[in-house]
UniProtKB/TrEMBL annotation:
Coiled-coil region list: none
Protein name: tRNA pseudouridine synthase C
Catalytic activity annotation: uridine(65) in tRNA = pseudouridine(65) in tRNA
Species for this entry: Marinobacter flavimaris
Highest rank taxon of the organism: Bacteria
Described function: Responsible for synthesis of pseudouridine from uracil-65 in transfer RNAs.
Annotated stretches, region: Disordered: 101-120
SUPFAM superfamilies on file: Pseudouridine synthase
Length: 247
């Protein structure tokens, strides 16, 4: 079986890969039947040695995923994440045309991993996301009540790390991410699933920047979105995703 992960960066302390959409990072109580995880594939890339996931990337989200190759590095990078010293950049396609740029400062109630806990009251945490609109398009297709439908490509920079933060924040400002089954708009999701033959979440982690946990030197890890994402972005004439992912 071929390894679905693509190595983006590797040294004696870190392993960074591109995770495809649809692959869980590790075993979850929500998906007990699943047998394939990014963690096991990363371990295979690490000569069978243990790796430590240091951040979350949702199953339907593709993109940059960083593992530590030892516990000390995992601890140091984990502390940097909690301190807000790691910059994460995502690319998303959303319904409508958001403003040119803005911030979403909207607290979110925690979502437990275990569905059995959903009935219990969960704490509310501060959550902050910055966004920037990179491209817009309008297609002559009536999906809701208008004769045409508008979409945008946005760059998202979460400053906190709440579960499903970007998906919930974009829904909050009425520009849900295309393909989001839980927080999006069903008619738009179905249109794109039928048009392109796949209904993926249009959210990709394209860049992470931080100080190397051992050397202290600045490190930026980038990855262009995978082919299934780029195919949908063909709706935006003149938009070159490489201009975004390589900055």
């Amino acid at each position: 079986m071929s390894n679905p992960l693509t190595v983006l960066y590797r040294d004696e302390h870190l392993l960074a890969v591109h995770k495809p959409a649809g692959l869980l990072v590790h075993r979850s109580p929500i998906d007990k039947h699943e047998t394939e995880f990014a963690l096991q594939y990363a371990r295979a890339l690490n000569e069978g040695q243990h790796v430590y996931p240091v951040h979350r990337l949702d199953r339907p989200t593709s993109g940059v995923l960083v593992f530590a190759r030892d516990s000390d590095t995992a601890r140091t990078l984990g502390m940097a994440l909690m301190a807000g010293e790691v910059t994460k950049t995502y690319l998303a396609m959303v319904r409508g045309w958001p403003p040119e740029h803005g911030e979403i400062d909207h607290p979110l109630r925690e979502e437990p991993e275990d569905r059995r806990l959903k009935g219990e009251e969960q704490p509310v945490r501060d959550a902050l996301t910055y966004y920037r609109t990179l491209a817009t398009t309008e297609i002559p297709v009536e999906i809701e009540k208008y004769p045409s439908s508008r979409y945008a490509v946005v760059e998202l920079n979460p400053k906190t790390g709440r579960k499903h933060q970007l998906r919930r924040h974009m829904k909050h400002i009425n520009h849900p991410i295309i393909g989001d089954a839980n927080h999006g708009r069903g008619r738009h999701n179905r249109y794109f699933a039928e048009r392109f033959g796949q209904g993926r979440l249009m959210l990709a982690a394209t860049r992470m920047a931080f100080q190397h946990p051992v050397s202290g030197k600045p490190l930026t890890i980038s990855a262009a979105p995978e082919a299934s994402f780029l195919e949908v972005l063909s709706l935006f004439p003149g938009f070159d995703v490489r201009d975004h992912s390589e900055k």
